[in-house]
């Protein structure tokens, strides 16, 4: 529990004594900001209103400080390039902590720390961390303002880059603060880059292009609904509405309140018959969510519209259907591999008003990254700020370089993407990056089997987090780095939601765009051609596509997957759907080992699914 709040008068007096601006009528918010300010000791406090003028001022300030490069407005109006410190380029999972009361509640897949001990440790870490800096108070809404599935938060940060990014990624500013002042609940989040400009002795040091600290902490207190982040300015480490709140904290809130917070894209698919279906899909970081969310169909009659590309909040409604919102307002997407031929929608979205981070700078003041164009520019400044030519022997953009842009700029955004009550979800898809074993697509036999598929997803690691790229790891529900409580309890929660939904439960599928042939190349062309797989999934919902049972699920019956006009050899097709009995029995053994890590906490229904799978494989 928190200490009793000081009186309003005492708080107002303290602001006045420090010469700080008291920017809210909400007593709890004012007292909390004061507490954080007295700890971190900023020069001034700025309450963000989310206005255009405020963003313009902060962009100008960062350009003047050398923290952002303004791109040539002729090519990229209203857009900027940020280059991070080379040691601050991705989420830091080893420094991400879940501080629940008991270690069991965090589970074996999270780094647990005792909340009281961590609070004491962070007091020391944050003490004076904003000296010489401005502290920004950023009120925001995850989801449409006032929506039935939405939630409010406040991020305190000393990074203007974070403020302008939160302005794109969330509904940020005065209107969110109004809702807080109306008395709605909100989540507390605190962020410092950990680079004070004045030390304890009063000695000044110069500003740098990307302030950060070698010591990093990404700390969640799920019970207190609170986040503290230190030492990084990067994406999921610093934009605290995103992974820290909308997944780690929200997953805990969702478990307590009977809904789901998931690492999922949301799309609306319109079939040739004109019927709309909504699909939510969970793939691990850098495994194709943004690309699928913006898919441009080339299959006659089919259309995909974008609702969200990274996070979904799903809640059973009064009629017993599962409805979902995208809690974000923008995209923080992977740049490399995004080009006209792979993701035209994204390229068009990025016409202007975009913050690029760690991509390359062209001589004409525009940006470039690997995959934007087939031909490489003859000369660039790379993401580290160094001269680059095609024979430099290194990539010009960092593999985890990203764009930050408002969703409303996306040409394929759905009309109802901001529906405060969300869209009804008809199908749930799990995926990963698997060179072997996992077929292009399969349908789960039922909800329980679907939960088993989600729980046992493995994927080859990407550059989105620190670690060995390519190493195969379990990433259940694509939530390994994002579940704020015991992962096995998360599976139990999904099983309970399924029981509640009953016959209204969405159908569940698994996909894999990344299976490779013996020569090491992808067997499936992917990107726009993934429409064929989505069409089969919708065909299953509309009962127009046939499936056949294989031991691991239901795969498309002969000719039910539309391959018309696709150059795909018989051999490749066979390999895409091959179910190797020996390999799958070995997967079962690995799943058993994985489940064993959770002690007795794995739901019995899932161990039963594992045994049923073994039986079907050996029968
Ligand atoms: P996060 O933002 O980290 O959560 O990533 P994401 O899941 O949104 O992944 P994204 O769509 O940005 O894709 C990541 C990388 O995978 C990019 O380099 C894409 O070009 C590549 N990719 C996406 N879809 C496909 C596909 O169907 N086939 C292949 N081969 N690559 C793909
Ligand atoms: C991911 O890693 O899943 C991302 C990028 O979407 S970040 O916001 O850094 O988490
Ligand atoms: Mn993501």
From TrEMBL:
The keyword NAD does not apply. It comes from the Bacteria. It catalyses: oxaloacetate + GTP = phosphoenolpyruvate + GDP + CO2. InterPro entries: PEP_carboxykin_GTP_CS, PEP_carboxykinase_C, PEP_carboxykinase_GTP, PEP_carboxykinase_GTP_C, PEP_carboxykinase_GTP_N, PEP_carboxykinase_N. This is Phosphoenolpyruvate carboxykinase [GTP]. Mn(2+) binds at residues 243, 263, 310. One of its GO terms (molecular function) is GTP binding. GTP binds at residues 286-291, 402, 433, 527-530. It is found in: Cytoplasm. The active site is at residue 287.
């Amino acid at each position: 529990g928190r200490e009793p709040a000081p009186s309003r008068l005492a708080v107002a007096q303290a602001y006045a004594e420090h010469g700080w601006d008291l920017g809210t009528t909400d007593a709890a918010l004012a007292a909390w900001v004061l507490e954080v300010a007295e700890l971190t000791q900023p020069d001034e406090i700025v309450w963000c209103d989310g206005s255009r003028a405020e963003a313009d001022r902060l962009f100008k300030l960062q350009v003047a400080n050398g923290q952002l490069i303004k791109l040539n407005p002729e090519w990229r109006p209203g857009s900027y390039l940020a280059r991070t410190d080379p040691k601050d380029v991705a989420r830091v999972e080893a420094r991400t902590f879940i501080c629940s009361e008991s270690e069991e509640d965090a589970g074996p897949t999270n780094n647990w720390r005792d909340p009281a001990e961590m609070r004491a440790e962070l007091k020391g870490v944050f003490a004076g961390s904003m000296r010489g800096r401005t502290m920004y108070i950023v009120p925001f809404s995850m989801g449409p303002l006032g929506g039935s599935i939405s939630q409010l938060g406040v991020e305190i940060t000393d990074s203007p880059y974070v403020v302008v990014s939160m302005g794109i990624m969330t509904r940020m500013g005065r209107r969110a603060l109004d809702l807080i002042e109306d008395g709605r609940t909100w989540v507390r989040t605190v962020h410092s880059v950990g680079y004070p400009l004045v030390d304890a002795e009063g000695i000044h040091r110069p500003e740098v292009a990307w302030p950060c600290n070698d010591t990093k902490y990404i700390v969640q207190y799920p019970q207190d609904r609170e986040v503290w982040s230190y030492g990084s300015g990067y994406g999921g480490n610093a934009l605290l509405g995103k992974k820290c709140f909308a997944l780690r904290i929200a997953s805990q809130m969702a478990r307590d309140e009977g809904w789901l917070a998931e690492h999922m894209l949301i799309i609306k698919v319109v079939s040739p018959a004109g019927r709309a279906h909504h699909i939510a899909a969970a793939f691990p970081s850098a495994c194709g969510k943004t690309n699928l969310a913006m898919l441009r169909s080339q299959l006659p009659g089919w259309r995909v519209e974008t609702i969200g590309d990274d996070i979904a909040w799903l809640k059973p409604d009064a009629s017993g259907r599962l409805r979902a919102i995208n809690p974000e307002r923008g995209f923080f997407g992977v740049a490399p591999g995004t080009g006209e031929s792979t993701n035209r929608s994204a390229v068009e979205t990025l016409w202007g008003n975009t913050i690029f981070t760690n991509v390359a700078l062209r001589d004409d003041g525009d940006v470039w990254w690997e995959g934007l164009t087939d031909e490489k520019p003859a000369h660039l400044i790379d993401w580290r700020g160094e001269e680059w030519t095609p024979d430099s022997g290194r990539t010009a953009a960092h593999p985890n370089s990203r764009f930050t842009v408002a969703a409303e700029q996306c040409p394929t955004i759905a009309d109802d993407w901001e529906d405060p009550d969300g869209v009804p979800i008809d199908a749930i898809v799990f995926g990963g990056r698997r060179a072997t074993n996992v077929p292009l697509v399969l349908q789960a036999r039922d909800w329980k089997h679907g939960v088993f598929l989600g729980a046992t997803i493995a994927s080859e690691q990407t550059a989105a987090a620190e670690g060995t790229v390519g190493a195969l790891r379990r990433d259940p529900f694509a939530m390994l780095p994002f579940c704020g409580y015991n992962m096995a309890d998360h599976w139990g929660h999904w099983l309970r939601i399924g029981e509640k939904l009953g016959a209204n439960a969405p159908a569940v599928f698994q996909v894999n765009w990344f299976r490779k042939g013996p020569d090491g190349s992808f067997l499936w062309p992917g990107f726009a051609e993934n429409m064929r797989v989505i069409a089969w999934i919708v065909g299953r919902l509309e009962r127009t596509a046939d499936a056949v049972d294989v031991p691991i699920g239901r795969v498309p019956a002969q000719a039910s997957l539309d391959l018309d006009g696709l150059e795909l050899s018989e051999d490749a097709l066979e390999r895409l759907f091959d179910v190797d009995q020996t390999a799958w029995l070995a997967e079962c053994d690995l799943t058993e080992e994985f489940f064993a890590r959770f002690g007795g906490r794995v739901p019995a229904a899932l161990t039963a699914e594992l045994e049923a799978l073994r039986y079907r494989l050996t029968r």
